[in-house]
Amino acid sequence: MTPAARLATATDLLAEVMDTPRPADAVTSAFFRARRYIGAKDRGEIASLVYGVMRHWARLHWWLERVNHMPDPRALVIADCILAGGRTADAVAGLFNGAKFAPAPLSDRERKLIRALDTRTLNHPDQPEAVQAEVPEWAEASMRATFGDRFLAEASGMLGEAPLDLRVNPVKGTREDAIKALADAGIKATPTDLSPVGLRLAGRAPVMALDAYKSGMIEIQDEGSQLVAFMADAQPGMQVVDFCAGAGGKTLAIAAMMENKGRVVATDVLEGRLTRAKERFRRAGLHNIETRAIKTERDPWVKRHKGKFDRVVVDAPCSGTGTWRRNPDSRWRPLGPGLVELLPLQASILDSAARLVRPGGRVVYATCSVLREENEGQVEAFLASHPDFALVPVPSAWPAAWGKPPVGTDMLRLTPLRHDTDGFFAAVLERRADAPVAEAGADEGEVVVPEGGPATAQPPA
Ligand SMILES: C[S@@+](CC[C@H](N)C(=O)[O-])C[C@H]1O[C@@H](n2cnc3c(N)ncnc32)[C@H](O)[C@@H]1O
Questions:
Q1: Cα separation, 24 vs 331, whole angstroms
Q2: The SAM-dependent MTase RsmB/NOP-type domain covers which part of the protein (predicted)?
Q3: pLDDT band at residue 440, thresholds of 50, 70 and 90?
Q4: Which of 61, 334, 362, 454 is deepest in the core (most CB within 10 A)?
């Protein structure tokens, strides 16, 4: 494809992303599936143009408003070419030339636009901080409350692309085995700093096509997500529930830690996700996992299994602010419920799921959000209303066999800026050994699921 043809296709894809109420990665996959004639290299370039626009969204909109131009897909692509791509106005006019497969020639208004933007760059000193750091209005106050005077630095740390991390499945091999298998396929991987079974790739690579992936030796999982799973310190032989298991990213890590011994029950309100997770469990050679679809967090199954589990992991549906590097579109088009619905839902899920844990057992409450109200706020409220639980600081919760804990704090708070992982939060809550089982949580029917059904969030695997 010529550069002009790529721009034309990127404009079509961006229009489709903007028009479709589905996550951009799903729209992008469907777009390319319907256009199999586009080769891998062109796909990469086109996707990168569109993701560039989504990463620069607030700043591009700021500029377009300043020069009084509608932010339609074509204008966004044109502005991105100049402001972020460093192209001159003449170069852009040369690409939008109406030739075969190239974008239609520029209109008079668009000619005015490129002249107004010529030699400018994406950032401008007049931009408010939230625009500079691409923070949407719905998250700004919460993020400021969370980070205080580190707001701009932390939010700016979420602007780049996330790295591609893998978790090595100890049931199928060691980290060294995986490094070698990847090197044999020409892919350079280095051990992650914080996760003892993580690998970070130097760039993008088609890992899903590799034997090491197909045989279950490696899984794609952000280093932060790995750490959250390990906070459960699940031991071989334990009984564990992964309450919001989704597509099973953390379930896999937990079950592997248990060396296939004991039992992990993966529950979720979306049965389709659990069905997809089963294929991953099979590939990983893990036989100690069962799935259970529940109707809500107050499903009668929870009451029937009160106090029966050693570990309960609650990877709650959340705003996903920790995954903005991966899903830049989710800043501007949050498709799931907003914070107003999420906060009571998270509290209700934690309250109900905590009933499953035995006295002396542990609940891990986690999110892929960086916002205090979804994290510490939920944990503090839970502890205040559940005196039979106490916080276990990270260094005590971290599996001893795995050496140094990732942080020395009471709760695990990871941010792209400080840890170069996705933003994740986890707190470990231990139930007093002498706590009576009947105490934990309310019974079914006490909490109403928000209108429109239970919430979902799209986390990284
Ligand atoms: C953050 S995602 C889980 C990601 C998953 N643990 C992983 O690592 O791949 C949150 C999950 O909570 C589920 N969920 C939403 N509402 C729920 C509820 N009321 N009870 C249990 N799970 C719920 C969603 O369907 C979603 O799969």
A1: 11
A2: 154-432
A3: very low
A4: 362
Q: Which domain holds residue 392?
A: 223-439
* For helices 223-230 and 249-257, angle between their N-to-C axes, nearest 10 degrees: 50
Whether residue 157 lies inside any domain: the answer is: no
Q: Report yes or no: 158 and 224 within 8 Å, Cβ to Cβ.
A: no
| Residue 410 domain flag | yes
- Tell how strand 239-242 and strand 309-315 pair up: parallel
Q: For residue range 294-303, list pLDDT tens digits in order.
A: 999 999 999 9
Complex confidence, ipTM: 0.99
Instruction: Indicate whether 271 belongs to any domain.
Output: yes
Distance 267 CA to ligand 1 centre (A): 8
Q: In terms of pTM, does the model score above 0.90?
A: yes
How many domains, in total, are found in the chain? 3
Ligand 1 mean position, distance from CA 96 (Å): 45
User: Which residues participate in catalysis according to the annotation?
Assistant: 368
Q: What pLDDT band is residue 252 in, cutting at 50, 70 and 90?
A: very high
Q: Which CATH number is 182's domain given?
A: 3.30.70.1170
Q: Is residue 248 part of a domain?
A: yes
Q: Is the CB of 246 under 6 A from ligand 1?
A: yes
